[in-house]
């Protein structure tokens, strides 16, 4: 694997950071090399350092195609913070100069609307699509069709959990004090729990009010991150279903804030996410 001359951008969405590579015109990293290359690029000591690598591709069903790889080299379905960075990148690089775009991901087509400031992308509103609480679809090994405020035991402690998928799987755990949770202890235990055959993203959440919450995240394949867009989306939807949050909620993540509006489409819950994306630097592997 030779990455010499590889051009990329480093971006972050409220602290959730990514390396972004343009493959809309040609393949830059071969399919067989992608896992190893992404492990290197994500390495914060020997590589660039990031929570994931995003690839811009062509699409037959949307304006552009999107792929994401985790720091461990596995491929993820989608990332809410990542898709905002993706939209910022393609606009800045003149790959697609439109203030509304459709993006094909492994969890479906997402629509992103861009707010410009001084002709630069500044703010992004994403229709994150519909969720499912069906345990077979998450997937989760469970004896009920849904796990909403269900109780499980992890490492000798009992937790009430709500499990759903927004294209990738999430477990939401509401707690009294989110800062007191030992996330380094419980994060990996939840992620690899036998109930979740494909592992799961883990979110501990404290409800401040009906329209405000605070959360911390352990991401599948990445560990602790400053933010998780799909996780925050799942938190807003789960909180609405539980009656903890209203349809509009502001979530505080370690890296910043995201706003959500939950909607009901024929009995299925979805959400709009609003937040920023930031270009850190452009680079080239020497």
Mind explaining what this structure looks like?
- This protein has about 290 residues and is α+β, with helices and mostly antiparallel strands.
- It folds into two domains: about 5-130 and about 275-285, Roll (Diaminopimelate Epimerase, Chain A, domain 1), CATH 3.10.310.10; about 150-275, Roll (Diaminopimelate Epimerase, Chain A, domain 1).
- The protein has helices spanning about 35-40, 80-90, 185-190, 230-240; strands at about 5-15, 15-20, 55, 65-70, 75, 100-105, 110-115, 120-130, 150-155, 155-165, 170-175, 200-210, 210-220, 225, 250-255, 255-265, 270-275, 280-285.
- It has an 18-stranded mixed beta sheet that branches.
- The longest helix is centred in the last third of the chain and has 14 residues, at about 230-240.
- It is globular, with a radius of gyration of 18 Å.
- It starts with 6 loop residues before the first strand and ends with a strand.
Number of discrete helical segments:
4
Give the CATH level 1 class of the largest domain: Alpha Beta
N-to-C CA distance: 14 Å
Which spans have pLDDT < 50 for at least 5 consecutive residues? none
Structural class: alpha+beta
The sequence of SSEs as H and E is EEHEEEHEEEEEEHEEEHEEEE
| Biggest beta-sheet profile | 18 strands, mixed
In CATH, the homologous superfamily of the largest domain goes by the name: Diaminopimelate Epimerase, Chain A, domain 1
